[in-house]
């Protein structure tokens, strides 16, 4: 029973991963297919060489080429399929949408990549916090605890931000954000935001504006 629970959970994580990163899964499947074809081709050449159908010299040359092709597939850098265009993301984020794109490299320099599995609490209500998050992929549910009961107040998608209130006011988190799907985020620390805003005060004004609007929405929810 314990094994089945672990197996089912692992399968669910794989399915969620495939849904969230289809381009990666497709590439992995294609790479696996190519490896299987090369292995089958290698076995065929060896068998033909053993039967004397293919001269040993030619067989050795073919097998050497096949080995090199397999090694090339093995060395393929798959991390490129996880990379997200930061400039594109910043254009979607309300607090940075009006910032001159020439400043995006400065902002991107301070962003830290984070990932969370489905059901994981990203931030928790009441905890101290000094950072905000930009959603690059996935969906997050935002909830607040009132009278001992959890109440969902928002659903966030790629391009949304959260955690900016604690970052700006150095106050405890006023809500809990939970990954509803596998999520990838960029985290921005308060110390790093201060460095950015020292050069571009308009960024802080934009963040504070979004924070005020979200607090108003939560008050009327």
Topology of this protein?
Blueprint: H1 2-20, H2 22-51, H3 56-74, H4 86-92, H5 94-97, H6 104-109, E1 112-116, E2 121-123, E3 131-137, E4 140-146, E5 149-156, E6 161-162, H7 164-169, E7 176-179, E8 183-189, H8 190-199, H9 201-220
Antiparallel strand pairs: 1-8, 2-7, 3-6, 3-8, 4-5, 4-7
Helix pairs in contact: 1-2, 2-3, 8-9
Written description of the protein model:
The chain contains nine helices and eight strands. The chain has helices at residues 2-20, 22-51, 56-74, 86-92, 94-97, 104-109, 164-169, 190-199, 201-220, and strands at residues 112-116, 121-123, 131-137, 140-146, 149-156, 161-162, 176-179, 183-189. The mean pLDDT is 82. The strands form two sheets. A four-stranded antiparallel β-sheet has the order 1-8-3-6. A four-stranded antiparallel β-sheet has the order 2-7-4-5, with no helix packed on it. With 221 residues, the chain is of the alpha+beta class. The longest helix is centred in the N-terminal third of the chain and has 30 residues, at 22-51.
Instruction: Kindly report how far apart the N and C termini lie.
Output: 43 Å
State the secondary-structure class: alpha+beta
- Helical content stands at 40-55%
By DSSP, the count of extended strands is: 8
Q: How is the biggest beta sheet arranged?
A: 4 strands, antiparallel
SS field, number of helical segments: 9
The whole-number mean of residue pLDDT values reads 82
Q: Strand percentage, roughly? A: 15-25%
Spatial order of strands in the largest sheet: 1-8-3-6
| Helix/strand order, N-terminal first | HHHHHHEEEEEEHEEHH
Q: Give the overall silhouette.
A: elongated
- In the predicted model, the low-confidence regions spanning at least 5 consecutive residues are none
Rg, alpha carbons: 25 Å
């Amino acid at each position: 029973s314990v094994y089945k629970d672990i197996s089912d959970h692992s399968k669910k994580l794989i399915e969620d991963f495939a849904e969230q990163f289809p381009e990666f899964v497709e590439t992995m499947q294609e790479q696996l297919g190519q490896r299987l074809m090369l292995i089958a081709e290698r076995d065929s050449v060896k068998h033909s060489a053993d039967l004397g159908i293919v001269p040993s010299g030619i067989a050795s040359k073919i097998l050497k080429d096949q080995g090199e092709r397999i090694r090339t597939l093995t060395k393929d850098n798959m991390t490129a399929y996880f990379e997200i265009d930061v400039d594109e993301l910043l254009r979607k984020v309300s607090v940075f949408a009006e910032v001159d794109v020439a400043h995006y490299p400065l902002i991107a320099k301070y962003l830290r990549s984070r990932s969370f599995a489905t059901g994981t609490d990203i931030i928790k209500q009441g905890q101290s916090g000094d950072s905000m998050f930009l959603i690059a992929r996935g969906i997050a549910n935002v909830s607040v605890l009132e009278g001992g009961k959890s109440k969902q107040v928002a659903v966030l998608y790629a391009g949304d931000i959260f955690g900016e209130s604690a970052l700006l006011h150095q106050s405890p988190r006023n809500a809990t954000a939970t990954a509803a799907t596998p999520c990838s985020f960029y985290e921005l620390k308060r110390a790093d935001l201060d460095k950015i805003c020292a050069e571009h005060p308009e960024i802080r004004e934009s963040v504070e504006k979004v924070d005020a609007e979200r607090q108003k929405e939560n008050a009327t929810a």
